[in-house]
Amino acid sequence: AGAYVPLERPASVIVLKELHGTPRELQRNGSASLLDLGDGVLGLEFHSKANALDNDLVAMGYAALEALDRPEWAGLVVGNQGEHFSLGANLMLVGLAAQAGQFGQVEALVRQFQDLALLMRYSAKPVVTAPFGRTLGGGAETALAGARIVAAAETYLGLVEFGVGLIPAGGGCKEVVRRLVAPHVAEGANLLPHLQRAFETIGFAKVSESAHQARELGFLTAGDRIVLNPAELIGEAKREVLQLVQAGYAPPARERVVYALGQRGQAALTAGIHTLRWGNYISDHDKLIALKLAHVLSGGDLSAPAWVPEPYFLDLEREAFLSLLGEPLTQARIAHMLQTGKPLRN
Prior knowledge:
This protein is an alpha/beta fold. It contains twelve helices and eleven strands.
């Protein structure tokens, strides 16, 4: 043509910032927006600092699910187009609340996030999450709460709370057990190696080096998808929503979801933890965190293995999280991470 011509944008490319300030931005607060992605699909977009989870973001999550109940909406995509999907909970707010002794406020936020993740998982209409880049802590828990994950190939996903003296409390422990332990119950297999793998995934703060490795670690299932072109991630997640609707999507059953090994599993993990401490591979505080993690992943003090409700696991997570948050050495780890960006071994 001898002149510039507009480059035709593929239908799979959706640019979220182009929806800001238009009628397709349905709601907005300081941390998130609710968007109309077209074709009856809603979008929950994070835009807090580092896409960290806070009260405003959780509130917009509830608003998104409330809107999803209306007949004009078919499903929801959770994602954004920042530098990273989410670095997890706002650690500064958590640390300041702990130092001020405001544990009631922290517990309320944790409970709200736990309930939001369950509502996403059991929504009557499909919720598809679209992680990319660093997807850590609460960000990983958000990604795991969807009916499907459509992940960018470069997704570094992991539950890293151990590094700041905590354990996952937004459903992360429950999800790892659900994904790594529960599927092997029907096989009649020895479940202790699978529980050990779940423990190491969280206790060693394993982070995938790609979406494919996230699948190897058990974070992604066979039904989840991996997208090579990050520009197409939101569009492909939207397409996944519509395909699920067309296939007659129904939420998962709530029964026989999480299997707890109880005292037998906890005893096996505890023996390994004591061995690590005797060998001086971990500190006394590491040992305390690890013992609480073992207690949660085993389902507490059950005298015999059993299927347990998801809220039972979530209560154990929240109790352990708050207990650890009250520890001065955990508060020191949080402060050191905020000041230096590096974990403190104490």
